[in-house]
Design goal:
- There is one protein chain.
- This protein has one domain: Herpes Virus-1 (2-Layer Sandwich), CATH 3.30.40.210.
- It is an alpha+beta fold.
- The longest helix has 9 residues.
- It is built from 4 helices and 5 strands.
- The protein has a 5-stranded antiparallel sheet with strand order 3-1-2-5-4.
- The model has no long low-confidence stretch (mean pLDDT 79).
- Bound molecules: zinc ion.
Length: 122
Amino acid sequence: MDAPAAHIPTATKGSRQLRACLLCSIVQQPIDFRKYGCPNCEEILQMKSSGDQVAQCTTSYFDGIIAVIDPENSWVSKWQRTSKYVRGMYAARVKGRIPEHIEAELEARGIKYRPRDQTDMD
Ligand SMILES: [Zn+2]
């Protein structure tokens, strides 16, 4: 039985083209965000087939790629049906914020958005 997995970018060369989701910080190639959306946040971000959404909800400004995360402590899991992140690569730090209307959408669901740039950590 296969666990759900993200479309893991295979090329390390040209990694500048990779983008990280501003909500869950998963790292994928832009074309995969566009084709399949975010494997964790698609329900809210709806990036599939929308270049605009991909541009707004992902960023190429991130650093530190980690392959493993702790799904149990994920705040995203609170609104995910699966309660787990998919396997994949994640950015340790992501610069930027999701658009305001997405933040409002999260709030409407009773979720407090936490930017992934760790500015709220101290
Ligand atoms: Zn995401």
